[in-house]
Amino acid sequence: MKEIERIREYTNELSNIEELILESTAGLNIGEVSIWDAKRQIAGLEKNCIITKLKPSFLEENPYIKNIHIENWFVGNIGLTNITEYEEYKTYAYEMRRRDPKSLTTIYNFCYFPQNVPFPTISEIIPESKWMGVEPSEISSFAPFIKEAHGKVLLMGCGLGYVAYMLSLKDEVEEITIVELDRNIKAMFETYLKPQMNSKISIIEGDALEFLEVEDISKYDYCSIDIWHGAMEMFPIYTKCLLLEEKHKDTKFHYWLEEDLHTLLETLWIIILRKRANNDPINRDLEMFTSILDKNNINTVEDIKKFLMAPKRQIITDWALANRDSARNQENLSLVIEKTFKNR
Fold first, then answer.
1. Which run of H or of E encompasses 51?
2. Which end of the chain is more exposed for a tag (fewer CB within 10 A), N or C?
3. pTM listed for this prediction
4. Which residues, other chains included, contact 135 with Cβ-Cβ below 8 Å and sequence gap of 6+?
């Protein structure tokens, strides 16, 4: 009984802090808030909301931006432009969310520039929707993979070819193969971007999941998957890919935004644990996440802390291998997760 009360108090406190952090960061990652308003908005949460001032050279001296010439190019419904700008003294997303090992609360990272700074983007024209840009959040999120990768590399998703280009500059990387589903993006890359890059890079048209299902990729040392727009969207594809990893044990897999997804799911698990401790109803659509908690035998506050800091890829992989049909048929959980966050 005493332990149940400890769990209730701990999860209530942790959930309330997570809610406060989430509310305090509204708008900070998309250029809606000035640096001065941002500092007022996160007052008291500076340990959880880090804002970094970046020099324009962060983008201007990036090898891709510096060396790859981009104009206003269009192929089908896809547009490539170099006129998108970070507005001066506005805050934007920077590094991925992560969990603080001491407080076990989420840490958000934002940045701003002291002047307007342009960067290239690739977008869908109708409806207007930016897909990817060579911007600080993209640069920082791919930096560890680019630094580590060597040998032969397989990239699922092309975008502006930023990762392929940065890899091609490394002597340790022998060749880069891109698999891209959208033929307009493939045509854009082959027509305007690839001629400016070296011969290490090749691109083929195909569906990433089908490719991993039928092709032997054992010759590749690394496989990086970037076929979603954000962490909320990636989960159902992520579980399918984790199952496909079993077929390709000689290849090391990297998932763009994986740490961000794990941090998001950890917050979701905190909410579920709080609901359980308070005997509140839990949405049936969250059954998969509750089953993962059940499998990890969380009965004490110490169990919660250990679970939150445990490597999540292995935990989710174990669930996927034990529940293959469910892992292959996950739906986009964005609405469910957003609803859960709002009704926490």
1. strand 49-53
2. N
3. 0.93
4. 59, 86, 92, 119, 121
